[in-house]
Amino acid sequence: MLARKSIIPEEYVLARIAAENLRKPRIRDHQRKARFIAKNGACNLAHKNIREQGRFLQDIFTTLVDLKWRHTLVIFTMSFLCSWLLFAMMWWLVAFAHGDMDPSTENPSNSTKWTPCVTCVRSFTSAFLFSIEVQVTIGFGGRMMTEECPLAITVLILQNIVGLIINAVMLGCIFMKTAQAHRRAETLIFSRQAVIAVRNGKLCFMFRVGDLRKSMIISASVRIQVVRKTTTPEGEVIPIHQVDIPVDNPIESNNIFLVAPLIICHVIDKRSPLYDISASDLALQDLELIVILEGVVETTGITTQARTSYVAEEILWGHRFVPIVTEEEGVYAVDYSKFGNTVKVAAPRCSARELDEKPSILIQTLQKSELSHQNSLRKRNSMRRNNSIRRSNSMRRTNSSLIVPKVQFITPEGSQSASET
């Protein structure tokens, strides 16, 4: 430390530390609220302290379908394995009680003809193999039933019934997990960001939705909800307060024809929770807009649902989605690479309430945008004109450089003769 102090003065070190601290911007990040619905549609909700766990067993089929795949496969395997072992133990007990395990019954020199309950069942391993053959109806032919033991016939009937029940439940569970409705929703996509812009003279909240598959969603409908934390006049705090907001649809019903990507529009009017929010207030708002798309899958007839949400940071004010549907050789083509692309447009920065109270704000905004557009066009034209002039001047210089200059020769008599070389 003494050597360092002798090399670098203490005053210089303190001044440098102070300068570095001044250069660093002291910005306190806004604490982000947890999303209620993730972008992929999953609900960000954890269930805790559930005391009545037995209610899940009352609806065992739905519980099995809701389990993860690794748990379902373990239960699927263990259900068959346990049933085979259980009935193998029962077949072994039947054979042991009847005396089929006695070595004397295997001696062919015995004068008394012995008829076992199940042929070739001499150990627990053979009983286990016979249990598998009975339940899955393989029937290799080495082991078979006889009419010697009524108890063995009863066990055979019982195992067949139990095996059919296990097959029906487990195969049905596997089928339902592979054909769940949310699997179809994987090809229903939403734009990553939403926009707020002017449409038909009104401020509108808009987002884009599309379907990647050619098979359509029948009777598709879109619902929008605003989730926010509110406090009632009585002082009650509602952490998740859901409010439905209307969707602008020219059709009387709320159904949409989702054959190509559509821009869903919500007009911000007096009924909208966004009515009093301006562009500067949007970043400070603690709200989340949930979008729910429901419909029936055309190929399977199963109802599906796709969900997403938009928080304040994902809403662009004064933007508009670029068109992605074009007509090429008599076919409408959709360019999904531009699905979420937006462009800046003229939009007032005030709230929809202020826009309704002062309609002149919209006119002034449009006039300013028109003037700026004209100025940009003038600048672009002037730049093109300057570039063309520069090109012409450069062409002239190159042409002039190719002209051969005239050289004068002076003779001894003093006369001058000009010649071109």
UniProtKB/TrEMBL annotation:
The keyword Transport applies. Keywords: Ion channel, Ion transport, Membrane, Phosphoprotein, Potassium, Potassium transport, Transmembrane, Transmembrane helix, Transport, Voltage-gated channel. One of its GO terms (cellular component) is plasma membrane. Its main location: membrane. It is a multi-pass membrane protein. The chain crosses the membrane at residues 73-94, 151-175. GO terms for biological process: potassium ion import across plasma membrane; regulation of monoatomic ion transmembrane transport. GO terms for molecular function: ATP-activated inward rectifier potassium channel activity. Residues 37-180 form the Potassium channel inwardly rectifying transmembrane domain. Residues 188-358 form the Inward rectifier potassium channel C-terminal domain. Residues 384-397 have a biased composition (Low complexity). Residues 372-397 are annotated as: Disordered. It is found in: Membrane. Belongs to the inward rectifier-type potassium channel (TC 1.A.2.1) family. This is KCNJ8 protein.
